[in-house]
Design brief:
Mean pLDDT: 93
CATH superfamily of the largest domain: Phosphoenolpyruvate-binding domains
Order of helices and strands: HEHEHHEHEHEHHEHEEHHH
Number of helices: 12
CATH architecture of the largest domain: Alpha-Beta Barrel
CATH topology of the largest domain: TIM Barrel
Helix content: 40-55%
Radius of gyration: 26 Å
Strand order of the largest sheet: 1-2-3-4-5-6-7-8
Shape: elongated
Strand content: 5-15%
Structural class: alpha/beta
Amino acid sequence: MKSKVTIPSILNAKKEKRKISMLTAYDYLMAKILDEAEIDILLVGDSVGFVHMGLQSTIPVTMDQMVYHSSIVARATERALVITDMPFGSYTVSKEEAVKNAIRLVKDGGAHGVKLEGGKRVLDKIKAIIDAEIPVMGHLGLTPQSEHKFGGFKVQAKSEDAVERLISDALALEEVGVFSIVLEGIPIEAARRVTEILRIPTIGIGAGKYCDGQVLVTHDMLGLTDFTAKFVKEYSKLKSEIISAAKLFSEEVKNNQFPTLEYSYDVDIKKETKADLIENISDEKKSFDKI
């Protein structure tokens, strides 16, 4: 078995200049495959709302749903670090509520840590979670749970003032004790500046090559969705392959080409005639009448 990825090994990756790989996982089979592929971190993202639930936003995703998907991914994983998103509304009401929900994700969801969006505005909640001995990954830049505030999914930190605020938030998160920060949807230069100033790793998604690691939604990376953001590289075209395979299966079934004997069980069963069946039924009836 390959060495387990831990919080200290993620922190050491930055010191040793080793890039960190992170992909999303929501189910047992995909998590197991990605774990075997030696992805460092499996993120049980609230993007499950898009990928598995057909939602147009991550906002409706519930704690119960995140606990459910997290527990499945954790069960499949042997090597990777499992980090689970805290969904919208699960950490903003109070420190007590934030800690309670984070504990659920670790205790019932099997996560090794949690990820939550925001900088200084949620600093007290992050500190409370960390004080409860739960590792926290931060998330700055384009934060999907704030889509209404941003007016949609738009690139952030496009001005010098915005970059300065981003750096200030990142430093505040580092100071309070997060072990890494996701930087989403920001210009490459802004990400470089944040990454260089922090002692903890940054993991980019639409933030350029200077981050200490990269994350993508697995289904986008595999070409299973029609999502076409600038930062998404399709490493495969699985959607077209699945459609082709499903069409071929349907054609073979309708043309009686599948299953052939190759895909059938051939067992030597005694062939009974109609007379044999009638005699057996008659014998069974006689036995029943005697009872």
